[in-house]
Design goal:
GO terms for molecular function: glutathione transferase activity. This protein is α+β, with helices and mostly antiparallel strands. The chain folds into two domains: 10-86, 3-Layer(aba) Sandwich (Glutaredoxin); 99-223, Glutathione S-transferase Yfyf (Class Pi), Chain A, domain 2, CATH 1.20.1050. Helix content is 58%, strand content 7%. It has helices at residues 23-34, 51-56, 76-86, 99-125, 129-154, 167-173, 176-186, 197-208, 210-215, 219-239, and strands at residues 14-18, 40-43, 65-68, 71-74.
Length: 241
């Protein structure tokens, strides 16, 4: 697939290895679309990992992987930083120029993965109601912290990056499709306007972005995939009893 282009030489060629439902892939595709960079997308079957993936990410054997002129860059947020460095002048700069502001952005982007993601995944991995309640409480506490971070980082504007989409917006935005798809099955509204009004409004702005629409997988397909995965987990739990 291609967005409006950057450069035409073979050394400028961009290829993304990914799995369609991956929130980490959403981050990379979002960053590429925001910078209007052309790229080829290659779908990877994570149950039968291709030689291509194993060759370019032999350490973690995970997606996404960005190939730039045949050279690999792994891990979604490292790819986002790489695009900032490798393509100055294309689209917005995702990380701020001020060193302290850059450090703050990196801190909150890491918080999304270290605290929010780990707690949220726990909701689906639990086997008892008490465990689920605990995971929900941790998730909501992480969202409360991110609500405060948004208030501080945005300076009253529409994005964590202020006037435009920045590094933390991309980190959190990768999970928006999965959040939307999870609500019917969990009954938990992840970004509730009553609890996190700033983040709820942020999500509406995010979903309205053309770059986000191009990067996000269909909610209906994610919902069906989630139901299938949940059924598999329940069947496995029953067989282990």
């Amino acid at each position: 697939m291609a967005a409006a282009g950057a450069g035409g030489g073979a050394g400028d060629q961009l290829t993304v290895l990914g799995a369609w439902a991956s929130p980490f892939l959403v981050r990379v595709r979002l960053a590429l679309h925001l910078k209007a960079l052309e790229y080829e997308y290659v779908e990877v079957d994570l149950k039968d990992k291709s030689d291509l993936l194993l060759a370019f990410n032999p350490v973690h054997k995970k997606v996404p992987v960005l190939l730039h002129g045949g050279k690999p860059v792994c891990e979604s947020m490292l790819i986002v930083q790489y695009l900032d460095d490798a393509f100055p002048g294309y689209g917005p700069a995702f990380l701020p120029a001020d060193p302290h502001d850059r450090a703050v952005a990196r801190f909150w982007a890491a918080y999304v993965d270290d605290k929010l993601l780990s707690s949220w995944v726990g909701i689906f991995a639990t086997t008892t109601e008490d465990e689920k309640t605990e995971a929900v409480d941790r998730t909501l506490a992480a969202l409360d912290a991110l609500e405060g971070a948004f208030r501080e980082c945005s300076g009253g504007k529409g994005w964590f990056g202020g006037d435009g989409v920045g590094y933390v917006d991309i980190a959190l935005g990768g999970f928006v499709p999965a959040m939307n798809a999870s609500e019917p099955t969990t009954g938990l509204k992840i970004l509730d306007p009553a609890r996190t009004p700033l983040l709820a409004a942020w999500k509406d702005r995010f979903c309205a972005l053309d770059a986000a629409k191009a990067a996000m997988p269909p909610t209906e397909r994610l919902l069906e995939s989630g139901k299938k995965r949940q059924a598999e987990l329940q069947a496995a739990a029953q067989s282990n009893k």
